[in-house]
Amino acid sequence: MSDVPPADDRALDPETEARHARADHLKERIYLSFAALAVLLTIKSHGEPLPLEAFLTLLVTVLGTLLAVFVADIISFTVVHERAMRRTERQHAVFASFGALGAVSLPFVFLLLAVVGVMQIATALNASIIALVVTLVLIGWAAVRKIPLKWWQRLIALAAEAALALGVVGLQLLAHSA
What we know:
The protein is mainly α and about 180 residues long. About 75% of the residues lie in helices and about 0% in strands. It has six helices and no strands.
């Protein structure tokens, strides 16, 4: 299979392609972080689980989310371009989807510490939730840091992302307090 783009594909300048790649990577990190946050909050709201169960639940959720996003990328690309992905496009899709694992690495570390008995499961869950909220804010910062915005516009973007993350926490707490 050739890596030469068909005539119907628009060629983008390298800077625009780099921005698209960065945006895809950030988007997948946001999806995965919110999914992990929702699952961890749900686990926490159902009492004190066994550490291994919490770890495995998060693992299945993360892998399922990554696979779903990857398959969706392949299918949507095929629909838009009416062809299969070329090697470089598949590499981009793999990197964008599975490169998002770094966004949820701390919750796995905390839960693994609970599995081996170094940390209490409640502490591991709380630390994981805090880490994901901070991660979402950092992802937001990474998204806006190179964009020519005024400082207060960047602050609004970061505050909005933090508010959404805290909103997820609040909705979970509200749903399980009734």
